[in-house]
Specification:
The chain is built from seven helices and seven strands. The chain is α/β, with parallel strands linked by helices. The longest helix has 20 residues, at about 185-200.
């Protein structure tokens, strides 16, 4: 038993730990959302992750993504993989350093019933929703998580556009000069995404709002 699993045994029964180990989750994007979702899920007992990203770590990523100065210039999926395996050597990771397209998306993630969308480009978000929302057990997306603060219309929340879809964020605040992407709200959204995944898995494959 790993050090992490020994600690998790304080909070989960052996049966629930096994349920978490057997779950298969895909994360599309390894940036501010995806890298933090991956680390949160690993810390929570998930052991099988498929991670897709084609980008490299930049200095401007370090303010909100699960990387360190020595990762700059490295592939995001490779750097994230190294951190996940340091945390839990028993992680089973499938890594794809490529762009997800409408043509390859379903094939790449055929064996993952849970998909977390963690990309930046609006057109890609739409495409992934159209491909995966109709066919996956759970599809988790996010929108509107830039800036700081968060009251009124900028408060983080979630909605259910379909029975098997959870969307998190404030659904309005795009990143820009006035609202840069910063760790607190980005990681809040990532936490909400990871929580939706755990909710689904530990509730027997049914998301409970």
């Amino acid at each position: 038993m790993s050090v992490l699993d020994a600690g998790l045994a304080r909070y989960f029964s052996p049966a629930r730990l096994q349920t978490l180990r057997e779950a298969r989750v895909a994360i599309i994007g390894a940036g501010g959302l995806g890298s933090n979702v991956a680390m949160m899920l690993a810390r929570s007992g998930i052991r099988s992750l498929t991670i897709i990203d084609y980008d490299a770590v930049e200095a401007s990523n370090l303010n909100r993504q699960a990387f360190f100065p020595e990762d700059v210039g490295k592939s995001k999926v490779q750097a994230l993989s190294a951190h996940l395996l340091t945390l839990e050597p028993a992680m089973h990771l499938v890594l794809h350093e490529r762009i997800v397209t409408r043509e390859n998306a379903a094939t790449l993630l055929a064996d993952c019933p849970i998909v977390v969308e963690a990309v930046d480009v609006a057109e890609t978000k739409v495409m992934l929703y159209e491909v995966f929302a109709p066919i996956k057990g759970l599809y988790v997306t996010a929108s509107g998580l830039a800036g700081y603060g968060g009251s009124g219309e900028h408060m983080m929340t979630f909605m259910r556009p379909r029975r098997n879809v959870v969307a998190v964020g404030d659904f309005s605040t795009a990143a820009g000069d006035a609202d840069p992407p910063l760790a607190p709200r980005v990681m809040q959204a990532a936490g909400m995404q990871a929580d939706a995944v755990l909710n689904f898995i530990l509730s027997g494959g049914v998301y409970h709002a």
